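Sanity check

After download, print the first record. It should look like this:
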Amino acid sequence: MTSQVSSPAEQADGAVVGEQRKPAADKDVRRLDRVIIRFAGDSGDGMQLTGDRFTSETASFGNDLSTLPNFPAEIRAPAGTLPGVSSFQLHFADHDILTPGDAPNVLVAMNPAALKANIADVPRGAEIIVNTDEFTKRAMSKVGYAASPLEDGSLDGFSVHPVPLTTLTVEALKSFDLSRKEAERSKNMFALGLLSWMYHRPTEGTEKFLRTKFAKKPDIAAANIAAFRAGWNFGETTEDFAVSYEIAPATQAFPTGTYRNISGNLALSYGLIAASRQADLPLYLGSYPITPASDILHELSKHKNFGVRTFQAEDEIAGIGAALGAAFGGSLAVTTTSGPGVALKSETIGLAVSLELPLLVIDIQRGGPSTGLPTKTEQADLLQAMYGRNGEAPVPIVAPRTPADCFDAAVEAARIALAYRTPVLLLSDGYLANGSEPWRIPETDELPDLRVQFAQGPNHTLADGTEVFWPYKRDPKTLARPWAIPGTPGLEHRIGGIEKQDGTGNISYDPANHDFMVRTRQAKIDGIDVPDVEVDDLTGDARTLVLGWGSTYGPITAAVRRLRASGERVAQAHLRHLNPFPRNLGAVLKRYDTVVVPEMNLGQLATLVRAKYLVDAHSYNQVNGMPFKAEQLATALKEAIDG
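Expected structure tokens:
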């Protein structure tokens, strides 16, 4: 959803986006500054769709937000089981926020499995809405409940709202020509309507979405809309919900501009398209579907009007091979994958290093090794990106820090690839890929000019005066070789994986030439112009620095804010460029007595920092497939400060 506004706050103060129904006059309305909601149910219950719709309406209302979808790897996991639980957490507020939240204030549990899988995360006093229709003896025994948690007192510390969601949905749809099973499928829309009433969310956008989604099945669209409205009306009329809540738009969180809610993979897709337009080059994606990267292939396939060509290959090796061929042919070439796919693509990445052609390799990291945890997040591919090729094959590495930042990271990766004629690895992860936040759509004149000059004619004069084309004659500043498009008269040259002679590009087995070419390729990467790392040190006298990269930005920043609020002095720096490192990084690290590196791996950045700068960096690691929680991280950082 896109909203054109002077600011999100002004949008809310003017005409309301969507239909904003008013709660009944006899109901209490309480003002909150933020709330965290988690929808949970079977993977077939539509929890991701429910969360996405609530998020879209929240974004249009002008709140700042952050989301965390969490779902099984199986296409349809066993119903009613703990491994089959799918959840969607949304944190939204009237101020700037950074994470999906540590613990939900509201849990919507569609069945016993959803309750049991999530109750440990719910703090005492929180609200729990349960679908009582699903709490049958068989369903409860399947997940280990000997007695009903709704009756045995185990939920006494919570504000529990028992709602027969299935029964109410079926009753609301009895006028439709639907079987009971078909009607039950709309219970997620009933729950969405109820939550929309509780938190004063607009409703028109969701109804429009349902009409569009089921345009070819108008009866199904009407049934879902009816269920959605029934949920809203239930909240309005039932005595069990005596209170609704208001969370005002985020008046200070955003600069003026046009905003939309965006996920990391969508932002990456748009960044790639923007880069191709700024470079005036066609965009070519050679890819093989793999979770959690497939959304990029799906999205780019929709944009042929922007000169995008997508190729779904038969395997990972074919995908990158086609992309490298497109780079040779003059396209902005991209291949997308996750960690296991990077392993398969490694030989062709090495070929791209040897050919010195621009190629974007986008790795949406997930839990490993091998197939690992396809739908869970991790940032454990850094060392693979740095060293996972045979021989000396250096590549630049770029990492976005938030879902919206994926757009800028894609543009930056394209800048480096085109300017320095090199493959570039971009490391996102499942948390960023599937999570979402508001994004200010940039103006075209804010984007960098990425246009390149292809080789047009001879670039070298031999001793006898003959003018020839040397494919490995380098730009003295960037060390990039010329980019010669096949078929250009007079620019015929040899390509392949065997070592080339400097300048001429002829095959060479000469030891001195190989030594020179290896060192030159490394010097090209080392010489890439990247910005200095910025340090957030409010007082200037902190003795502890928290250094992060990638998606740990939100939890680290939230944890640092908590520490500062309690009087601790702590500095923070976050890396976008991981190869080469920013030139001032060594000096920054030496200014602090303690350097802590939180990572969703076993200490990969810490290993690189210790090796390169001889700094005794302390690792704080988590590899459970989930992002850090801010409170957990704040506690660990406090221990490091005190230690």
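If your output differs, re-run the checksum step. Summary of this record's structure: The two ends are 47 Å apart (CA to CA).
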